[in-house]
């Protein structure tokens, strides 16, 4: 999220308020009444309290949105729901921020933990089944202006990325993993494994490979490509043999996480079979 002069803006606002008070207190001169003058009653103006801003409306669970790939990468998005006919994201959870500033580290950590956790509960299925799906979550917070008006929510959306685009998603995806409803969102790929042409796509799109299983990888430090490949080889061979029509002629592939993916939390590799 881009940096914002939040502290400076609030400090200036406080400084301005103090300045106004000071000027107001010095706006009248001290004067001694002349002899014979009796000071009359003075009128005191009662300040009109500034009304509290009305917070913008919260997003609604179940609302549909038409987002582009770049929209999904942005920290904020339009709150109002759109038609579910062409929607590419579905709001499945709306929560309340604990931090005062939506772009603070604590706020971002809260959302980054909450939305994936809520997604697991929403989609259902096993960890393995969810890994073998392109369905994932993106999240949004209010804008600066909305926050200053009292907005304190965060929004978790379901999306289905495929080759740099978002597929259509509709309502009715709760507990869908492992069912026919989520079959088109299963993880497939096209291109040659190990080359730059290898690209993850949803199985609803043209593909030449299908992800058939995942293999957990241990350790905190990135093991390196050779160590990962050695760990994946036998489990992937076994997984591909299990689904092959000809057990004597098995073709398979494996794919481990990059260093960046490892740092982001992916501690498993994929096993692939021809589709």
Automatic annotation (TrEMBL):
Residues 38-47 have a biased composition (Low complexity). Residues 1-27 form the signal peptide. The keyword Signal applies. Residues 98-271 form the Septum formation-related domain. Residues 48-59 have a biased composition (Pro residues). Residues 26-62 are annotated as: Disordered. Keywords: Signal. InterPro entries: Septum_form. This is Septum formation family protein. It comes from Nocardioides yefusunii.
């Amino acid at each position: 999220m881009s940096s914002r002069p939040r502290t400076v803006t609030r400090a200036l606002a406080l400084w301005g308020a103090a300045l106004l008070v000071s000027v107001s207190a010095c706006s009248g001169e001290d004067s001694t009444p002349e002899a014979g003058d009796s000071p009359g009653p003075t009128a005191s103006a009662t300040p009109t309290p500034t009304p509290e801003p009305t917070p913008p409306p919260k997003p609604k669970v179940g609302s549909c949105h038409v987002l582009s790939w770049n929209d999904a990468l942005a920290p904020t998005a339009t709150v109002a729901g759109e038609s579910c006919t062409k929607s590419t994201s579905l709001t499945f959870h709306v929560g309340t921020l604990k931090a005062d500033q939506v772009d603070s580290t604590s706020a971002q950590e809260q959302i980054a933990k909450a939305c994936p956790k809520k997604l697991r509960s929403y989609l259902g299925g096993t960890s393995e089944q969810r890994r073998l799906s392109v369905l994932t979550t993106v999240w949004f917070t209010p804008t600066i202006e909305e926050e200053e008006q009292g907005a304190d929510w965060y929004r978790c959306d379901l999306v289905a990325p495929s080759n740099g685009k978002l597929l259509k998603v509709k309502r009715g995806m709760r507990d869908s993993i492992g069912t026919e409803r989520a079959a088109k969102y299963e993880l497939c790929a096209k291109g040659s494994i190990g080359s730059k042409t290898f690209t993850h796509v949803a199985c609803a799109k043209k593909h030449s490979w299908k992800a058939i299983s995942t293999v957990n990888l241990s350790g905190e430090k990135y093991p390196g490509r050779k160590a990962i490949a050695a760990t994946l080889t036998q489990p992937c061979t076994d997984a591909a043999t299990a689904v092959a029509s000809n057990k004597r002629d098995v073709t398979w592939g494996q794919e481990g996480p990059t260093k960046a993916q490892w740092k982001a939390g992916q501690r498993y590799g994929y096993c692939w079979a021809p589709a």
